[in-house]
Write the structure tokens for this entry.
Amino acid sequence: MDKQNSTYFTPEALAKMVSAQGKTLAQVVIILWQNIFDPNNSLEIIDSLQLRFTDGERITIGCNENGDGLDVVEPNFQETKKHLETEFEGKIKLHVLDASKTKMWDGIPGKVLLSMRVTREEENYRADSLVLDFGDEGRTIAISPNDGLVIDYFEQV
């Protein structure tokens, strides 16, 4: 594979992922962008996913700066929200939502995050997707240029 066309996690992002392993999940928060330029057809995308643990630690998975891969990000919700309101005159809104009780995440808070698995490519780790492994359940996170984060159930094969 041509490494020029691949995006990889940084050592810092990998270290943060490793530090989250073994922690008990308390809450799942999604950061949602809502585009209401067309009031009859609003568009919503998941910008990032934040895992909040019982020890108070948090890890946020979002899009990297180039928009071509995942990264561990340090979002500033209030600053981003103000910027969007000003730049797009209220037509793009940022929402921070507790997703813990949604169908996708119901039953996951209270479980231990065993690992955050990524694909190894030689000495690097691809930033195209990752798996959150909670033992008997898992979730995949990937990125789509048009759809933001794509979260799905992970099934062991």
The CA atoms of residues 79 and 85 lie 10 Å apart.
